[in-house]
Amino acid sequence: MYRYDEFDERFVRERVAQFRDQVARRLDGSLTEEEFKPLRLRNGVYLQLHAYMLRIAVPYGTLSGRQLRQLALIAERYDRGYGHFTTRQNIQFNWPKLRDVPAILDLLADVEMHCIQTSGNCIRNVTADHFAGVAADEVEDPRPTAELIRQWSTNHPEFCYLPRKFKVAVTGAEEDRAAIGVHDVGLRLLRHPETGALGYRVLVGGGLGRTPIVGKVVREFLPKAELLAYLEAVMRVYNAEGRRDNKYKARVKILVHELGEEEFARRVEAEFAQLDGPSINADPEEVARIAAYFAPPAYESLPARSARLEAAKATNPALAGFVTTNVFPHRVPGYAAVTVSLKLIGGAPGDATAEQMRAVADLAERYSFDELRVSHHQNLVLPHVRQDDLPAVFAALAAAGLATANVGLVTDIIACPGLDYCALATARSIPIAQSVAERFRDPVRQQEIGPLNIKISGCINACGHHHVGHIGILGLEKNGIENYQITLGGDASEKTALGERLGPGIAAEEVPEAIERLVEVYLAARGAGESFIDTTRRIGLEPFKAAFQSFARKEVQDAAA
Amino acid sequence: MPLLDRHGWRDDPFERLENGLVAAAGSVLVPWAVVAEALASRRPGQALGVEVANDLDPAALRPQLAGLDLVSIVFPSYADGRGFSLARRLRRLGFERRLRARGPLIADQLADALACGFDEIELDEASAGRQPIEQWLRAAEAFTANYQRGYATTESILERRRARRNAPDRETAGAF
Ligand code: SF4
């Protein structure tokens, strides 16, 4: 894991002092509320429906046990004993007092954490594959790149007053677990087909929200060493030319769309050509310095299969089920990555209590080289667990109420905070997730249905990424009543696709039954071993639409009767 | 209007004129629309500045740059960061004279403005009245160093790390 050197340490302390000073200037009237708002947002402080919300950066989703314990402490001391992990690998606290924020920032700085640029019209927290350093299909660990971008984008003198927010995601793997196609900039580490040199494929202009668009490749291969200069060129073109007349058209995706991807790429290349790379890019020693922090931990050499695990599975079906769903293969023989589901049936997706955080921190320290990850699916990951230890880890998770065996299944639902917290929401999301999870709670049935991602947003801003859910649910408001639009066929993987609407919106109570109907269509049509999304690709939307619409019509008739 | 730079408030030697007929004797600042006339009618040695919108194409300004003593870039609001990129591009074109940011900026932006190549900020009376000069000077020093190379008025963190790598016997950051 990356560790701060004295420069990082001093920077973060100075940032806390700066925010204190900004708060003081707001209180003495030097700054107007309008002037202060972007400053507090750039420090992760939102004004929500009931209270302030504080969003803490978890850079590329990597945490140590000590850091997670500190988050648990903050949850207890300054919130209501829990926190909410987000779809951008961050954590939010929903009930802090504004006057406590500087004290929280001090506690965060004590463990090398901060809230810098978790909101506002600036470059946001960089996200990465949550299986970085674990996955076998990885060309290079994306986290050194993400850390380099974190530093470069922090308090950038030129790019903190952008037309709109700007999100970057990085992956080093073939399978895209970082959803790079739906970010303002998506980077994929790869090797040049001829020279074998490392570099990036650069996508620009992806995004969800009210105008969902998949990012366009603007550079097929960017040599690794030239990353920062190229990003500076992208940002300068966007900062100078992105629309500022309409907040809904201000994201870079609209600029790319309006100029056309070739013209956008041409402008970036023209700007890039004028830059003096060597005076902008990090030198190789600096890149190596960062990369050294992400060197693989001291793995033992172990057999690929653990006899101890196999024996335990044979006598413990719950463990066997858990391993099937929540354990991801590790590139190092004898190890595995364990996903700790924060999707308890009946819970709020992504929420964890202080006790649960401490339980996971214990496990990370004891069994996973003191490392854990936050996934953009709002779960936690223990990335480097010996397979021999899986029975013990499972038992400890079960004791903490965290052994829900549903990763990737129908109840592993992504949901934004929605109307329960969010000031922008048009409908609730969490109760919808709960009612759908309740409907499909039977673990045997979940296994039988197999991988199925449901994603829920409480308004058109799409923080729940509903467009890229295999089934997407968007909560709107119609004549004062919550109304849910259902989409099908979205995909956040390397096959990025946006879901299509199945028909008219339905009422909250009808959502579980509607999902049931869609699952029935799939179960009747699937081939051997064929997943939900593959079946939808093969048979198309029509059968689903027909089932959905006959259901939706019937509901309308019943309501009228 | 109040003018400040990294040292504090300062007098503005430029007189703002609305048309290109340079009647005044001293330094003048004219709108972009009349820059050609102003250049033609200026007296020898008379300092001339031009005020431009933040979406001006720097290439349009290029032919005039050599004759100008000041370029003032308008910030319609402090949240509109286009002026920072325009400043960077003008500096890259070789403009070395005074570069001014004009608009309702806030104290925290003095450091950004200096880093992007500005020399000074011209505020409206209301912004200046609310934000005493000490706030600007304090905010400008909020960070000992930033991460970006090629911007800062002080050495960036990356430069400092490099310097330390090359001089490993110097122990602490205090050495800088
Ligand atoms: S999608 Fe809408 S309701 Fe949900 S968190 Fe985002 S802004 Fe709030």
Automatic annotation (TrEMBL), chain A:
Keyword annotations from UniProtKB, A to Z: 4Fe-4S, Heme, Iron, Iron-sulfur, Metal-binding, Oxidoreductase
Pfam family, one: NIR_SIR_ferr
Domain called Nitrite/sulphite reductase 4Fe-4S: residue spans: 119-273, 411-548
GO MF term set: 4 iron, 4 sulfur cluster binding; heme binding; metal ion binding; oxidoreductase activity
Residue span, Nitrite/Sulfite reductase ferredoxin-like domain: 52-110, 339-400
Protein name: Sulfite reductase (NADPH) hemoprotein beta-component
InterPro entries from the UniProt entry: NIR_SIR_4Fe-4S (IPR051329), NiRdtase/SiRdtase_haem-b_fer (IPR005117), Nit/Sulf_reduc_fer-like_dom_sf (IPR036136), NO2/SO3_Rdtase_4Fe4S_dom (IPR006067), NO2/SO3_Rdtase_4Fe4S_sf (IPR045854)
Family annotation (Gene3D superfamilies): Sulfite Reductase Hemoprotein, domain 1 (3.30.413.10), Sulfite Reductase Hemoprotein,Domain 2 (3.90.480.10)
Domain of life the protein comes from: Bacteria
The species this protein was found in: Tistlia consotensis USBA 355
UniProtKB/TrEMBL annotation, chain B:
Superkingdom of the source species: Bacteria
InterPro entries: UCP030820 (IPR008318)
Cross-referenced Pfam families: DUF934 (PF06073)
Name of protein: Uncharacterized conserved protein, DUF934 family
Native source species: Tistlia consotensis USBA 355
